[in-house]
Amino acid sequence: MRFASPVRTDLIIGMTLAETFLLLLFVVWYGHTAILRQDPAARMKERLTWLEHENERLDKELKQANGQIADLKWRLDWWRQNFPAVVEGTSGEEARQAASRGHPKCQQNNILVHASVCYGQISMTWLTESPEFSKWLADSGRPQPTVGVTISGLGAIQSVLTGIRDYYSYTGNNTGTECRFDYRLTYGSDGDYRYARQQLFERVFYPAGGISQCGTRRKVQVVQ
Known about the structure:
- This protein is an alpha/beta fold.
- It has 6 helices and 5 strands, in the order H-H-H-E-E-H-E-H-E-H-E.
- It has 2 domains: 6-58; 104-213, Nucleotidyltransferase, domain 5.
């Protein structure tokens, strides 16, 4: 009579125990699932746990969104304060140009004068009506140039430019940011160009209206 090998017997016993363990595990899992399917309270508890986790996730996202909204609101308020002439509906290119100016426009139609420095002859023609600027001039007792009038002579021009600088200070005190008018320039020689821009007009205006050169040189008679 032959007896089974001890090693083979242990292997069979081990496999049987493993199968038994898996069977018990399956029974426990199935029973738990059946309880969840059959027990409304268990299903409600599971649902409540999921809702709590979902609520925590949504609450975190809401806080992040509120932080982003607060940041965007601060940026928008800063933009409106520093660039009040940029109205609602402004295109991206217009907004970019406004931001690159350094000072915002004083009004939408912002080209105030056409300056001319042609071979030593200096003049400045008023191009645009500015209600706010005109009111300030009237309130401060200063002369009000009308559209189309040409101011000649360095002294008269510098007097008007001084008034415009004072108006900038007034807008800065009222709004927190000084505005700037734009201008057009016509020049004759290289010396005229440098003088007009560096020494005279661009201390007051931005050259957003365009720069051109005088067509012909005019002879200036010098009185001895």
